[in-house]
Input
Amino acid sequence: MIIEIAAQGGFGGITAASLRKTIDVSDQPERMRQDLCDAFEPDQLARLASRPCTNCADRMTYRITVTEDRGTHSFTLREAQIPPEMLDLIDQM
Output
C-alpha cells in the first residue's frame, strides 16, 4: 500500500500551511505498518469523508490517495473529519 497525502490550509483564504507526504507501508516496521493499514483503509476513509463537516472553516484540507492491489482511491477530508490518532500518524509519516 502506498499512501500519498497532500494537505493545505489557511485562515481567511490565506494559505498558512501545506504539506506533501508519500509513504510505502511495506517499508515500515510491523507496528507502524498495521496502524497505517488500519487507519488508511479505503472503506474507513470513505466513511470519514461521508461524515458531515461542521465547524470546518479555516482548517486544513487533506487529499489522501491510497494505492493498493485493488486500485487507487482518493479522498478529500477536512481536519475536523479526521480522528486525532490519524492526525498523529500523518505527523509521524
